[in-house]
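Changelog note: in this version the structure field was regenerated for every chain. One regenerated record is shown below for reference.
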Amino acid sequence: MIRWSAACLLYLLVLSGTFAWQLQKELATLYFAGSSAEVFIDIPRGSSPGAIADMLMSAGVLRRKLPVMIYLRWTGYARRLQAGEYRFSGPARPRELIGRLVRGDVYYVAVTVPEGLTADETVELIAKLGLANLEALRRSLQRTDFIRDLDPAATALEGYLFPETYRFARKAHSDSIISAMTQQFRITMRKLLEEHALPADRTLREIVILASIIEKEARVDEERELVASVLANRLQRRMPLACDPTIIYALKLAGRYDGNIRKPDLEIDSPYNTYIRRGLPPGPVANPGVSSLRAALAPKPTPYLYFVSRNDGTHHFSADFRAHAEAVSRYQKKQVR
């Protein structure tokens, strides 16, 4: 039998207390020795706690490995560390580092995509934030398989990149980015169709086309159903829609749009020219938001056939050409719709 003297026991208590104090001090000490102002560490799925600690040390985020390994085992956090890319930009305590890894505080880039952008303008915005390559994103716009069940006639994803704020990993693949946006469209459209059934005389594709025009024409939500009613009434009477946004889209496709529409532009030979062609254009001209999609599904019943801008973000609506001409003379003499 081993007999411990009082002196030995005291020594062991002091030693263990000192070790515990040193451990707590190390876990509470700020440290950062990264090679740049911000450091990114990508932790692969399945990485062991020891391998993760080595990565943190190599990146200059962690000073000593042993205290962290003891802390992980003691707290049970070793089994809760999450994979992903993490961003470190200044001194932090080892306890704080472990807390972030346990919470899965992975670094994401937030992207707010506003309503009314074209598909190409959307991917340009995403690429400017450093997410994926622009050409790769443009190739992903051809992945119509993402929405084939919703729109078998789609030749690209124009109209189906839902405007929303997204959080993407810094190294997200272009396909995963575009897929997330079409998935959000799918979720939104499903909810809307629970509120308003798809009209018997419209396909989902036609609703998206109408919504894209509404998105570009209406500046305030209160007018979207009114704009939708004008479009629906014109289609019913087989009148040309005569919508400037479709002309702008045609000019963009031709590489001719400079921010203005001139009289000769109204005669551009394009299937998107709704001044000279009756019916809907062949596809959406932008990516509509939820309010425009809802308006396209359920236009407000009105007698209106015309509208003209008041130059303050709102429009004047008219049921006949004479009233429309008077409104044009009052608000916008240079533009007759």
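Spot check on this record: The longest helix spans residues 6-27. Residues 9-17 have pLDDT under 50 and may be disordered.
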